[in-house]
Structure formats: structure tokens, C-alpha cells
Amino acid sequence: MHSEILIQKYLRLIRQGITDYRWFLYYLQRQKLEPLDRARIASLISCFLPHECVTAAKHYQDDITHFRADGIRLLEDWLPESEALKIREHLLGRPCFDPDRFDKPGFYDPEAAHASCLHSYYRIGDILDCPQILKLANHPRILSIINSSFGCKPTISLIQAWWLRHGFDQYENQNNLYFKYPNSYHRDIDDWSEARLFIYLTDVDENSGPHSYIRKTQQYPTFDDDNKFSVTPKQLEISGFPVAENLINIVGQPGTAWLMNTMGFHRARIPIQRHRLLLCITYTLFPQPFAPARPVVNCSTDNDLDPYINRVYVKQSRTLQKGKFYVDWSKSESFEIPYAQPNRALRLRYHD
Ligand SMILES: O=C(O)CCC(=O)C(=O)O
Ligand SMILES: [Fe+2]
């Protein structure tokens, strides 16, 4: 019986891999879990992918150095709180949905969610209808750090925004990762190279589900047991890793942002006082099977978005197709994000 289930599982995976190449790539890279082996393979692959998405890297040398060393870089003085609040306002006008309970109706106000809801996600069309989000995802500071870490242009492979709610029914969520393994930190292994940009859209303190990251673990070897994707701080400590000086909980106002290597061990803490709203952009070498199979945004070629980096979500064409969702770029003109240096503003250009 057991082997029948296994055979069925493998048949399903093979069918998935044949019908959608993204699943094939996804399962392929999961065959090698040791971070150092993965880094070597990633660096080899990067030689064959497009290079040089930005020429601004020299302005962000500090970011690049810290990101490499720590696996995470807090992006201070980047996104003003007022801009994060605009994005939140936009999202609050759209419904969000509990991915574990699609039979339940969506809701606008996290207070109005059904009692069992822990996470709830916005629909991708509703997220991308806010043009600031693509601008943030393509900001030269972000692309410079990632380009330099990957050794090639990244692919924006997943764009998500979700609420993490407090006060949910714990019994209904006992199978959730964080309850099943209450002390564990995980790494995400979705592509040979992967980085995530996170932005808080609500005020986050110790009691409202801060993100928690263990710096310098992005190359830490896997533990030789059944679960190669997660670890507890205790296990790390016993193996001689200095957890206390590297574990950080990220708290801050809306607009608090950071970029992280998802191989570093991390987790969300369970919110006990306030709901948390987060925007998350994932960068990888290849498209992810979790993203829409075709671009959801049609826009004219009259913008500075790199077509390769944005190809999963954005189709650029000279004539907009009728009846399809498109981003109205004229909406975004008033939106400016300061560069790391004073007196410069984001204009969706990647050259000095
Ligand atoms: O919600 C969080 O703070 C962490 C989520 C997470 O683990 C991830 O997006 O990789
Ligand atoms: Fe994660």
C-alpha cells in the first residue's frame, strides 16, 4: 500500500514536470541541499544567464557586502513610511483570501476575517494594480544587491502581500508549520539562488509577528536528520553556531524593509497583539511554479522595466490588448523613493 502511494506520488510529480517546465526545474534543484554545493552550481548557471541589469552597483557597495556576509540587509532610509501607507491603503480596498480555506469568503478588513484565519493573501491582479509595487521591485538598490549576489540578472518570480493575523483559532491551525514545529526556523529552497524583499505595511513590534532571521546561516550545512529544511536555535547552538549574536527580530514602522537570502534560517513569530501586513517580492534565477503561468500585466514598451527581469508578471507590447488588465503608468508619476545618496529619486532608470 505504502509503495502504491509512493508510485502515485512520483507519477504525479513526473506529470507535473512534463506539463510545466517550472516544476521540473523546481524539483531538480531540490536534489542538492548542501548550501555550498548549491552555491557552486548557482554560480555556474549564472554564467549562462543575462548579466548587468544595473550600473548603479557602486553606490550600494555597503549593502552588497553586508548582504553577502550576513544573508540579510536591512534597507534603512529607503522607503518612507508615507509611501508604505499608500500601498496599504490600496490593498485595503481589495479583498484578501485564506489560502487554507478557499471555501470561505474573502474579506477587506482583517478584523472581519473568519475566526480560523491565520494568513490571508491578496490576488495578484489587485497587488499589481498598484504601480508603486513594480517600481519598488525594480529599484536600482534592490537589483544592484541581487545582481551582484546572483552574478547575473534575477527574475522577479513571485509577488505576494499577506496578512498574518492575531487572535485566530489555534486548534484550527494546529497543522500549520509554526504550530507543528514551534521552535523551528526554516530555509526556503525554491531555486538555486533566491532572495526576498520584505516590506512591512503595518507597525510591527515584538508582539505583532515580527520576522525573525538568524544571520550568517545561509551557508550553514544541513543537519543530518530527517528534516533538512529547518533547525531549532538549540540545535544550532549545540553544533557551535553563535545564535545569540546572530538572531534578530525585525520590528519597525510601515516601510521597514529588508532583503534576505532565503537559505538563511528564518521564520515569522506568531502575532499576539496586532495583525501584520507584509509585501514580499521573490527573486530567483528561473521562473517559479507558484507564480501565474502567464504575465498578468500588459503594458506598453514605453517604460524602463527590464523585460527579462519582469517577464513572469509583465508583458510589454506596443499595443495594449483589449480586455486585459494593464498598469496605467501615468498613475505612478508622483511616486519617488530616495536613493541611498541624498537628492536623487527613483525614475525607473538603471543608469547614472
Ligand atoms: O512571514 C514571515 O515573516 C516569513 C515568511 C517566510 O518564511 C517567507 O516568506 O519565506
Ligand atoms: Fe520562508
Give structural notes:
With about 350 residues, this protein is of the alpha+beta class. It has a single domain (about 30-330), classed as q2cbj1_9rhob like domain (Jelly Rolls, Sandwich), CATH 2.60.120.620. It contains ten helices and 14 strands. The strands form four sheets. Strands 1-10-6-12-4-3-2 form a seven-stranded antiparallel beta sheet. The longest helix has 18 residues, at about 1-20. The termini are far apart. Residues about 330-350 have low confidence and may be disordered.
Instruction: Summarize the helix and strand pattern as letters.
Output: HHHHEHEEHHHEHEEEEHEEEEEE
The CATH first-level class comes to Mainly Beta
As laid out across the biggest beta sheet, the strand order is: 1-10-6-12-4-3-2
Return the CATH topology: Jelly Rolls
CATH superfamily caption: q2cbj1_9rhob like domain
Name the overall outline. Answer: globular
Q: In this structure, how is the largest beta sheet organized?
A: 7 strands, antiparallel
Bound molecules: 2-oxoglutaric acid, fe (ii) ion
Per CATH, which architecture? Sandwich
* Rg of Cα set: 20 Å
Q: How many distinct beta strands?
A: 14
| Termini Cα gap | 63 Å
* Uncertain regions spanning at least 5 consecutive residues: 328-352
Helix content: 25-40%
Instruction: Name the beta content range.
Output: 15-25%
Based on secondary structure, the structural category is: alpha+beta
Count helical runs: 10
Number of domain units: 1
- Mean of residue pLDDT? 85
